[in-house]
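Help wanted!
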Amino acid sequence: MRRSYSRALGTAALAAVLVAAAGCQDTGSSGDDAASGDCGGKIAIFGAFSGDNAGLVLPSLNGAKLAIKKHNDANADCQIEMVEFDTQGDPAQATPVANQVAGDASFLGVIGGHFSGESDATMPVYEAAGLVMVAPSATRTDLTQKGNKSFFRVVGNDGTQAGAVATYLKSQNAARVFLIDDASAYGAGITAELTKNLGATVAASDKIQERQSQFEATISKIKAANADFVFYGGYTREAAPLVRQMRAAGVQAKFIGPDGLYDPAFPAGASGGAEGSIITCPCLPADKAGGTFTADYQAAYGQAPGSYGAEGFDAAQIFVDAFKDGKKSRAEILEYVKAYDKQGVSKYIKFAENGDVDPSRVVIWSYEIKGTAFEPLQELKLS
Amino acid sequence: MNFDDLFGHIGQHTVDGLSKGAIYALIALGYTLVYGVLRLINFAHSEVFMVGTFAVLGLWTAFGVENNPPIGQAILFLVLGLIVAAVASGGTALALERIAYRPLRRKNAPPLIFLITAIGLSLVLVEIFGLVLPKLLGEAVPSMFGRARIILGMPTIIEQKTLFTVLGTSITNIQLIVFVAAVAMMALLDWFINRTRYGRGVRAVAQNPETAALMGVNQERVIMLIFVLGGIMAGAAALLWSMRFGFTQSSIGFVLGLKAFTAAVLGGIGNLRGALLGGLFLGIVEVYGATLFASNWEDVIAFVVLVVVLMFRPTGILGESLGRARA
Amino acid sequence: MIDKIRDLDRSRVNALHSVADRWRALPKWQRGLGFVAFVVFLYYLPLLGIPGLTWLRTDSISGGSNWAGVLFTCAVYVLVAIGLNVVIGLAGLLDLGYIGFFAIGAYAVALFGSVNSPVVKWFQAEFDLPATWAVTWAVCAFIALVLALISGVILGWPTLRLRGDYLAIVTLGFGEIIRIVARNAEGVTRGPQGIAAIPGPEGPPSPDNQVFGLIDVKPWYWLAITVVLIMVFAVRRLEHSRVGRSWLAIREDEDAAAVMGVYPFKFKLWAFAIGAALGGFAGFLFASRYAFIDPTQFNVNLSILFVAMVVVGGSGNMVGVSVGAVLLAYLPERFREIADYRWLAFGLAMVLVMILRPQGLIPSRRRARELKDRAAEAEEAPAHV
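Answered by r_m:
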C-alpha cells in the first residue's frame, strides 16, 4: 500500500517536473557573442566533408581554412572563426544545418554549398535569414536564375564551362563529338549545356550511372558513331575506368572532361589510360595564379590544391576582407559581397546582378594530362 | 530505342555480355554455395571480392609491376595474383564465418538476423579499407590506400588485342581469358562438389544436415569448406577483374555483389550451374538493354528481368538444388 | 570482453523488464498520467533546456545540426520504422526496398504540389491555370498515401508468392528502380536536378509563412510527432485486431495458418500495402519539410538503414523499433566528432547487437520467445553440435 502510494507520488512529481520544464527557455544555442571585438566575427562553411564525395570538397575546405588562418595569424586583434558543418552533400542534412546557422545570430556569413543540390535546398533558408552565401563549387546554371538575393558563387556555372569546351572543340575542328554523362546533377547539367552549344557536331550520346565499372555498351556506341572526340561530364570514379576501357578497346578519339576530372586521382586511377586527355577547368595554372596560394597550400597540406581549392580560398577571402573593412552585421556583409570587386586567386571576382561571378571575368583553361600531371595548354575564350 | 545497333551487332553485344557476365557468375558462386548449404544470404560476400582485388593490387604494387610487362612476367604475376587473391578472399570469408556467423548459427537465429549481421560486416570491411587502412598506411603505401575511397589504378598486365573476327564480331584476348578462366573455375568447382569425397559431404549437409551428421559428416568442417570455396571463387573473380578493368576502390563490391546476387537468384540460388547461367544471362541482358536504351537504364532492366523470371519460375531458371534432391 | 558486454547487457535487460513489470503493476490512472507526461515531454523536446540534459542537444557541439531539425528526422524515421515494422516485424516479410515507397510519397507531393515540377507545369498549360497553381498540401498528402498504397499492392501482388529470400532481392530491386526512374525520367521528375519549392501546410515555402517558416523547424517537429502518435495508436489497434493475429500466425507457421483458414497471401498483401502507405506518408512529410528532393536522397543505403532500425531496435515491438530509429538517426548527428568513423562504428554496432542480442535492443516478448525456442531447438538437434 505504502509502496504504491509513494510510486504515485513519484509519477505525479515527474509529471510536474516535466510540465515545469516545458516552461523553461530554449537555451541550446547562444546568440550573444556576435561582436566581441571591434573586428572579426563568425562564419559557417558547409559541404560534404566526410563520406564518399569528400574528396571533391575537402580541397575547398582546406583553401578556406588557409585564408582564415593566414588572416588570423596576421591580425591578432581581428579574429575570424569559421565553423565547419558536415552535410555529406545530402540536402536533407544541409537543411537542418541551414536552420541552425540561420537561427544563430552570431553567424554573419556562409561559405557553401559545395554541391548544387544542397545549395538549391538551403538557398531560401539563408535568404530568409539575410545571410549571404558564397558558393565555391555549386555550378548548376539555374541556381542563379531563381531570383535569390543572397546567393553568390565564385565559380563559373555549367553554362560558361560548356561554352569553353565548345570553343575548344570548334578550334580543334571537331566533326563528330560523342557525349557521355553520369546522370548526376553536375555531369548531366554540364553535358546538357554542351549539347545546346555544339548543335550538329554531336554525333551521338550515352548516359551511364554512378558506380558503373563496365562500359561495353557505351564503347560500342562510340565505335559505331565513329567519333573523333569524346566528352565525359562527371567525376573521376566512372571516368577513369571508362577512358581506360576505351583505350584498351582501341578507341582513338580524344577524351575531354570538365573540372570534375581536374583531380590527381583521375590519371592515377586510369593507370596511363588518361594520357593525352584534355581537361577544362575554371582555374588558373599555378604559375599564373596570383600571390603565393599554390605554394602556401602545398606547404600547409602537403599536396597540390585539387579541384576548387582556390575557389574555397577566394570565398573565405571575401569574408576576410569584409571583416577587415569593419562589417559587423549580416546586412552589411551582404551589401559588401554584392559590391565586391577584387582580384582573387582563382579569378577576378566581381558579381553580376544574379550572383554569378561576372562571366567576362571567368577564366577557363585547358589542361592536357601527361603522366599524372596536368599540363596547362591554353586559355579558352568564351563565346 | 536503338534496334539497329542491337540487331546489327548482335554477335558483338552477346560476346561483350558473356565476358561481363562471367565475372558476375564467379561471384555468384559464393552466394549460391552458402545459400545451398545454410539457406542464408551471405551479404558480405561482395566485400570478400573487394578484399581480393586489394590483395592483387598489393601484390602488383609490391613487385612494382609496370604497364604491359613481358609475357613471362605477366603470366607469373597472374598466377601469383590468383594465389594471393584466393588466400585473401578465402581467408576473409572464413574469418566472417568464424567471427560472426558461427555464434548466430549456434543460436539458430532466423535468416533476417544473418542478413543484418552481414550488412554490418560489409560496412565494417568497406570502412576498414576505405578509411582505417588509408589513415594508418595511406602515406606509407599511397598507391594501395591513398585514394581507396575514390579509385586506385592497377597496371595493365595484358594488353587487350583482338584475336579474331567472325562475321563482324571480334573477340579479344582478355574476353577469351576471362570467359575461359571463369568457366574452368566453375567446372572445377562443379567437379569438386559432385565427384569428390568432400563434395559428397557438402551435398549431404545441403540435403539434410541431421542425417549427414548421423552419417558421420562433420558439419562444421563442411560449412568452413563452403565459405572458403566461395572465397576462392571470389578471389579468382578479383584477379580476372584486376586483369580486365585494372582498378579497385573500397566500395567496389556493393554494386557487383548486388548484380552477382541477382545472377544467383536468376539462375536458381543454391544451384552451381544456375549461377553460371544466371551470371551470363544477366551480363547479356545488361549489354542488350544498355544498347537498346542508354547505359543508365541498365540496372532497371536487370531488375525487371529478375522480377519477370521469378514470376514465371519462382525458384529461378534452373531451380535450386545443390544436393539435387532438395525438397 | 565479450562476456563483460554480455553481462552488462543482461543486467540492462533485467532492469528493463523490472521497469516494464512495475509499469504494468501501476493503477490505470497512474499509467495514464505517466503516458500524458511522456507525450508532453515529447512535445517539449525541441525546447530542451533542463540543466544536465542540454548535452543531449545536437547543437551543443561545434558544427552540430539544428536540434529541432534532428528531432524531425528522428520522428520521420520513427514513422518509417513503424511502417516497416508492420511488414518485417508483424508479417515477417523481408522488405529491403522500403525506400521505394518513401520515395513515391516524397515525389507525390513534389510532383503535384510544387510549381517547380513538370507535372504541375503541364497541368497549368493544359488547363489554362495561373502560374502559381499547384495541388494543395492536404490533397497531396492523400495522393501520396494512395500512390504508395497502390504501388505496394502492385509490387506485392506478383512478388509475395515468392519465398522470403527472393522477396528480399526483388524488393531491393524495386527500391533501386524507383530511384533510377526518378533520376532518368527528366521530363517528369526533373531528373538529377531535383524539385524545389515543395509546399508545406501553409503552401509553398516562404519567409511570410506564419507557422511553418523557413528558419524555425520546431513546428515541423510538432507536426511530425503528432502524426507519429496517431500512427502508433492506429497500428497498435491493428496489431491487436484479427488482422494482427493473422499476421502473427503466418509469421510463426505459414502452413499451419493456412490450414486454420488464414489465407496467407491476402494478409501478407495487407501488411505490404499498409506498410507501403505508412512509408509513403513518411516520405511525404520528409519532402514537404525539406522543400527540396533529388533522387540521390533515396539510395539503397538508406533503405538498408531502415531495415537496420527495425532489426536493431527489436522487430515486432513498436517501442523497440522506435528506439532503433531514434538511435540510428540521432547518434551520428550528436557524435559528429567521429564523423569519419560514423559508418565504421555503425557497422560494428550492428554486428555486435546481432550477435549478442539477435532479438534487438528492446525485443517484443513474443519475438524473444520465438528466438529462444529456435535456440533451444538448435541445442536439441544433434546436427548442430
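OP: Thanks! One thing I noticed: Chain C touches chain A through 62 residues (CB under 8 Å).
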